């Protein structure tokens, strides 16, 4: 058995090469030493280890690192001091022998410092390969480990995998058939292009962004009332479908209102700035929530775009990362001048708001009308026509819905450092908006407002944004990120599994003008992605850190539901609009909510809305739909860039008993009975829908055994049959044999609850 | 084959934990929980960081902020001050909520209720006439008069006491316990939350109060409900029998195993186990909820209310039944304690809701020998002001939120029975020393003021009773090893048995 032992490999290498400060030393210093000897070492006399200058400072006759007499370095002495060691014996975190060794060798080798990798702007390697850079860089490492790429997954598996990754749904049957029959070399490329062009693409990709920005349809605190914000969600879906360059995507969200003559879409995008949970609780103090709302924005920016926690620096200088407390508040100054009141008044239109098209079709219509009007207006002879269209636009605008946007006050609010993060303890001079020094400076001529902030974030040379974003694109494509801690690129985070690849992709994203679809295509057409995901007995890499097999992971909550909606042909493809309310067990909201809340009653939609994609399910932040939270969806009260993936008994209950799932099983059973001629064919069809392939012998045996048993049982029990087939609002084809229908319905819901349907593999 | 694969799953889990967490500071308790019975087939070693006194906790949460002044904290001297403005030096710069900050005066409002001194194991404890049943278990209670918090409004305060942070996003106390304690029963959820009925449904509760925050979502509380399925989606749909479900699960298991054979993914076996546990839960939860075998004496003890699902008394009875069945982590939320204007009306009802049930729970646990290793906690997110909000009369009044001191009680596993702890000034406004001088405790990691119990101290003490060192139970997120008690919290040793 080949062992891929990272530690052993690192150890052997370390005997030959100098210690790598950024990769080997800094994580130890950060995790074990910085709590006392780090950036937050405020007392002058405290020995600090967070920079070369500090470590070599003369502390009354001794130095942590003495470059002239390395052997006399206090750090070295204390590391090995039996009487008075560092870390002290009572410290929570002790050094391992290997760590002590690394630090020792590092000091002996000169104790040189380097910037943490993630604060150094990424650079592309000069390519010495042809073809896909991903394969070159993953392959290089595999070769070093003496491992070959896994064979390519079979075509059907690959089609399903790429379709789920890009669109969150299995491939449409026609598309699948075409691909399977297409023997041409670019068949796969064409499949990928078709998926990237599908409107389902934007819906699926938007979900991840909505987690990161904590999108919800309610205010999130106290009464947790309704909030007018869904046009923002629709804008996000459209932006992904239109492949809006990601730099522009970010700029509009951070500062659309500050662009010259902002368009409606640019204003709607600033809903991002307004996404913080808010309150209007009776006794709440406005100044307190002015501060809290802004903490939330700064920290969301940290997690979602900088891939690091800034929360520490709210109360004191960051313990690990070089973020002084004052810089936190300078960053907060970018957001502290927005015009909305600090309390939401429990209002749906928590101003400032604008009115925007009521769903995605309405956006398209509105843009078409505007384009038409613009073109007519240029032609004097079409004056009458132009006026008619203008009138039509005016009428159409009456259907618009309000959405929260950002606006700045004419005169900026004063921002001061808040001692210990307490709103009632402002301290020192008013602060100008400014960015984190360790990540560079505001670009020349950039205004000191949110627009300048956006320019800084999207400037070439920003060390983090492109890395953080592309890491998450990788994560949703491959199941895990190149950096496994996508919310922490700081000193405490994990190192990338493939640093050069991460950097290559981050720069490539910018080279390609922030073109997301191009990057996704690069990823999904790579050999790395196309590998079979079968575990390799000869490769001991359970977490797939070498990427020596294809991705496999459980689908997210939304896709779990969407796959079933789609396969049962219940999916309503309407895009956007106010959040939809599928079935939900009675009383869930009422049991929690204040009588004054306007979200205490959950009234399920009885029409096609309940079959819309899960992205559109109404998101009440204090109590999201249980079919979402049971399957690891976050509450959206705070930014989430990586969901957990758990397996629980309550999931099992939900998969087999929840009303909509039973209904989807029933409709899928109906579909099988109508669309296929015999039972064998029906089972083939079922598997083709959810697994893009026919069942194997074991699956066939298991399903047919269940089918035959239940068919017999239901044939003898009309009451149970009728009861089971009556679940759910959608109509049922009563011409079908009821016992067969009920049995197929149960086979269908069972297959939909199995890994065959729930996993990407 | 199965065994080997199962073994491999274990090892992988172990490795993952080691790589992902332990080396970086996962508490040994969490490690034991994660590797508990499920993985190693052996019972979890209770006593993670030290020998636990309690194996389980039942937390009776009084949401809205019960009035310490009308229930527990007897202040006879206030009577003489009736209607007079609260002296400025007593308020001492304390924030006033937006609800009373515009009031012209802050008239002192003594309680209208009669207090009686109950014998306990120390100097006795004063209990309000609103809690006649609870008074009868005074010898079991450790009544703390000096709980305090910084938050002055419900949402931040309840989020604070239940998650250690006023801002949403952290795992709840229950999630920390789930993470730390693991499970003793494979047929029931590990962390169970109930919502008791109230006439006065203010204020709101939030999923985050039993949510898992940034932790893996397996640690979120499972609601045990009185409406519909007791556990969400527990019951088979109409027309599906237990035999049908068995057949279905057999097919499901075969499908998953076939998938496992194809992809050699050892995690499949874990999922097969979860489906089986769900199947067992379908039997064990109805058995749990079936009160038909409870003798009449039970309902005499808890009151007839306990026959009505969803009442606080019924929830308490469920809590005892859960405790008997090895569930370690039980919370009951009872709303309606936010008495701004009609305290006499509302607190009367509230106490009627909870008094008999809480007392019965203590007695019942005691009779069954369970109280020794069950920690019971009763309390809300803050107290109420000694000055009146709105109109003051002898018959009725309101009280605003008060964070500087409030009363809670604890009983059972690990806590000294029949004592009181800490004292407040003559207004029940400030925490005071033995001579009645104002203490101004600040929650600081290196300093604790004897006689006080900040909410972090409360949580540290709860964890301590369960064998967990609150400083060692950590979960890494965004590079930081988070704790329930943040960087604060002191175990209040004075109240430990």
Q: What can you tell me about this protein's structure?
A:
- The complex is a heterodimer of chains A (761) and B (497).
- By secondary structure, chain A is mainly α.
- Among the domains of chain A are: 2-114, no CATH class; 155-197, no CATH class; 212-446, no CATH class; 657-760, no CATH class.
- Chain A is built from 32 helices and 8 strands.
- Chain A has helices at 6-16, 21-37, 52-55, 74-79, 97-108, 133-144, 155-167, 173-181, 187-197, 199-212, 230-241, 246-255, 264-269, 286-306, 312-315, 325-335, 360-377, 383-397, 450-457, 465-478, 499-511, 516-524, 527-530, 557-567, 626-629, 649-657, 659-675, 679-691, 697-715, 718-725, 738-752, 755-758; strands spanning 2-3, 353-356, 401-404, 417-418, 426-427, 539-540, 553-554, 759-760.
- Chain A has a two-stranded parallel ribbon with strand order 1-6. Chain A has a two-stranded antiparallel sheet with strand order 2-3.
- In chain A, a hairpin with a 7-residue loop joins β4 and β5.
- In chain A, α2 packs across α5 and α6 runs antiparallel to α21 (499-511).
- The radius of gyration of chain A is 29 Å and the shape is globular.
- Chain B is globular.
- In chain B, the strands form 5 sheets. In chain B, strands 1, 4, 5, 6, 7, 8, 11, 12 and 15 form a 9-stranded mixed sheet that branches. In chain B, strands 2-3 form a two-stranded antiparallel ribbon. A two-stranded antiparallel ribbon of chain B has the order 9-10.
- Chain B has 497 residues and is an alpha/beta fold.
- Chain B folds into 3 domains: 1-45; 52-226 and 309-495, 3-Layer(aba) Sandwich (Alkaline Phosphatase, subunit A), CATH 3.40.720; 236-296.
- Classes of the chains: A mainly alpha (761), B alpha/beta (497).
- At the A-B interface, α14, α26, α29, α30 and α31 of A face α1, α9 and α10 of B.
């Amino acid at each position: 058995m080949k062992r891929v032992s990272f530690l052993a490999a690192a150890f052997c290498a370390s005997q030959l090469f100098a210690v790598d400060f950024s990769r080997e030393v800094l994580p130890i210093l950060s995790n074990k030493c910085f709590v006392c000897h780090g950036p937050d070492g405020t007392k002058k006399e405290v020995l600090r280890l967070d920079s070369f200058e500090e470590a070599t400072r003369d502390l009354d006759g001794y130095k942590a690192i003495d470059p002239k007499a390395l052997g006399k370095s206090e750090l070295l002495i204390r590391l090995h001091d039996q009487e008075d060691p560092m870390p002290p014996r009572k410290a929570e975190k002790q050094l391992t022998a290997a760590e002590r060794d690394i630090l020792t060798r590092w000091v002996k080798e000169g104790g040189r410092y380097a910037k943490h990798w993630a604060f150094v702007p990424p650079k592309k390697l000069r390519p010495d390969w042809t073809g896909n850079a991903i394969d070159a860089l993953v392959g290089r490492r595999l070769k070093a480990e003496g491992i070959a790429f896994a064979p390519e997954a079979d075509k059907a598996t690959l089609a399903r995998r790429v379709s789920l990754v890009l669109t969150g749904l299995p491939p449409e049957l026609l598309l699948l058939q075409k691909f399977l029959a297409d023997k041409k070399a670019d068949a796969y490329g064409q499949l990928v292009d078709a998926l990237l062009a599908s409107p389902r693409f934007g819906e699926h990709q938007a979900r991840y962004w909505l987690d990161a920005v904590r999108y919800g349809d309610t205010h999130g605190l106290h009464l947790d009332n309704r909030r007018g914000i869904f046009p923002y969600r629709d804008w996000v879906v459209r932006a992904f479908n239109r492949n809006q360059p990601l730099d522009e995507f970010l700029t509009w969200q951070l500062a659309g209102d500050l662009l010259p003559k902002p368009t409606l879409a640019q204003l709607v995008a600033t809903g991002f700035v307004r996404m913080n949970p808010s309150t209007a609780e009776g006794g709440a103090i406005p100044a307190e929530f002015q501060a809290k709302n802004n903490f939330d924005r700064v920290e969301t920016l940290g997690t979602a775009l900088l891939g690091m926690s800034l929360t520490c620096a709210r109360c004191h200088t960051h313990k690990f990362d070089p973020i002084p407390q004052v810089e936190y508040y300078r960053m907060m100054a970018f957001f502290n001048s927005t015009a909305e009141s600090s309390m939401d008044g429990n209002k749906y239109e928590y101003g400032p708001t604008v009115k925007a098209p009521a769903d995605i079709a309405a956006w398209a219509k509105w843009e078409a009308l505007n384009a038409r009007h613009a073109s007519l207006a240029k032609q004097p002879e079409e004056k009458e026509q132009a006026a008619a269209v203008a009138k039509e636009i005016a009428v159409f605008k009456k259907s618009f819905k309000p959405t929260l946007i950002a606006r700045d006050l004419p005169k900026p609010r004063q921002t001061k450092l808040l001692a210990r993060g307490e709103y009632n303890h402002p301290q020192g001079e008013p602060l100008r908006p400014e960015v984190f020094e360790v990540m560079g400076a505001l670009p020349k001529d950039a205004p000191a407002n949110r627009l300048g902030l956006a320019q800084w974030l999207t400037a070439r040379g920003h060390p983090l944004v492109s890395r953080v974003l592309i890491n998450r694109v990788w994560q949703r494509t491959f199941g895990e990120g190149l950096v496994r801690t996508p919310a922490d690129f700081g000193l405490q985070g994990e190192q990338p599994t493939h640093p050069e690849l991460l950097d290559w992709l981050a720069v490539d994203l910018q080279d390609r003008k922030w073109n997301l679809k191009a990057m996704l295509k690069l990823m999904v057409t790579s050999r790395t992605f196309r590998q079979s995901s079968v575990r390799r007995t000869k490769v001991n890499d359970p977490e797939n850190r070498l990427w020596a097999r294809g991705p496999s992971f459980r689908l997210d909550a939304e896709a779990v539901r969407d796959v079933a909606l789609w396969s049962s042909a219940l999916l309503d493809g309407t895009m956007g609009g106010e959040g939809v309310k599928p079935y939900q067990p009675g009383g869930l909201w009422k049991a929690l909510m204040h009588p004054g809340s306007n979200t205490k009653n959950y009234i399920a939609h009885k029409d096609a809305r309940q079959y819309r994609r899960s992205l559109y399910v109404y998101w009440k932040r204090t109590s999201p739909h249980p079919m979402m939270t049971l399957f690891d969806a976050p509450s959206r009260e705070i930014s989430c860039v990586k969901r957990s993936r758990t397996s629980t008994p309550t999931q099992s209950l939900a998969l087999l008993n929840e009303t909509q799932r039973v209904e989807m099983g029933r409709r899928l059973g109906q579909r099988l009975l109508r669309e296929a001629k015999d039972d064998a064919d029906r089972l083939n069809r079922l598997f083709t829908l959810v697994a893009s392939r026919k069942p194997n012998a074991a699956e066939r045996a298991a399903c047919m055994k269940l089918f035959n048993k239940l068919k017999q049982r239901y044939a003898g029990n009309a009451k149970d049959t009728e009861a089971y087939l009556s679940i759910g609002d959608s109509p049922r084809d009563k011409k079908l044999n009821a016992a067969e229908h009920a049995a197929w319905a149960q086979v269908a819901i069972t297959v939909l609850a199995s890994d065959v349907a729930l996993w990407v593999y | 084959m199965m065994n080997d694969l199962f073994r491999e799953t274990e090892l992988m889990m172990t490795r993952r934990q080691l790589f992902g967490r332990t080396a970086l500071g996962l508490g040994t308790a969490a490690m034991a929980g994660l590797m508990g019975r499920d993985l190693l087939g052996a019972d979890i070693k209770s006593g993670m960081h030290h020998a636990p006194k309690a194996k389980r906790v039942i937390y009776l949460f009084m949401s809205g902020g019960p009035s310490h002044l009308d229930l527990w904290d007897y202040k006879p001297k206030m009577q003489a001050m009736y209607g007079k403005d609260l002296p400025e030096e007593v308020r001492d710069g304390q924030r006033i909520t937006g609800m009373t900050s515009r009031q012209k005066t802050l008239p002192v409002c003594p309680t209208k209720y009669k207090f009686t001194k109950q014998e306990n194991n120390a100097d006795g404890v004063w209990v309000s006439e609103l809690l006649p049943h609870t008074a009868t278990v005074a010898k079991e209670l450790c009544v703390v008069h000096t709980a305090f918090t910084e938050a002055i409004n419900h949402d931040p305060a309840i989020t604070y006491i239940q998650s250690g942070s006023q801002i949403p996003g952290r795992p709840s106390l229950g999630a920390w316990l789930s993470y730390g304690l693991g499970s003793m029963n494979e047929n029931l959820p590990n962390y169970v939350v109930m919502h008791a009925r109230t006439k006065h449904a203010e204020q709101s509760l939030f999923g985050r109060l039993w949510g898992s925050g940034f932790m893996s979502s397996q640690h979120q509380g499972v609601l045990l409900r009185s409406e519909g399925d007791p556990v969400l989606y527990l019951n088979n749909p109409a027309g599906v029998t237990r035999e049908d479900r068995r057949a279905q699960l057999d097919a499901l298991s075969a499908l998953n195993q076939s998938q496992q054979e194809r992809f050699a993914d050892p995690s499949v076996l874990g999922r097969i186990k979860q489906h089986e546990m769900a199947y067992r839960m379908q039997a064990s939860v109805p058995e749990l909820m079936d009160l038909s075998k409870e003798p009449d004496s039970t309902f005499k003890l808890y009151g007839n209310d306990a026959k009505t699902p969803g009442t606080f008394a019924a929830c308490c009875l469920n809590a005892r039944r859960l405790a008997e069945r090895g569930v370690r982590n039980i919370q009951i939320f009872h709303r309606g304690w936010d008495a701004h204007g009609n305290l006499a009306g509302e607190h009367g009802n509230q106490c009627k809701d909870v008094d008999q049930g809480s007392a019965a729970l203590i007695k019942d646990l005691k009779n069954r020998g369970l109280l020794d290793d069950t920690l019971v906690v009763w309390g809300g997110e803050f107290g109420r002001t000694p000055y009146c909000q709105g109109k003051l009369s002898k018959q009725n009044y309101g009280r605003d939120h008060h964070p500087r001191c409030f009363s809670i009680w604890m009983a059972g596993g690990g806590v000294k029975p029949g004592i009181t702890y800490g004292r407040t000034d003559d207004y029940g406004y400030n925490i005071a020393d033995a001579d009645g001088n104002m203490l101004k405790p600040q929650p600081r990691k290196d300093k604790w003021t004897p006689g006080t119990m900040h909410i972090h101290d409360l949580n540290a003490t709860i964890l301590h009773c369960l064998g967990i060192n609150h400083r060692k139970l950590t979960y890494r997120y965004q590079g930081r090893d988070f704790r329930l008690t943040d960087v604060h919290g002191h175990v209040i040793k004075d109240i430990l048995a």
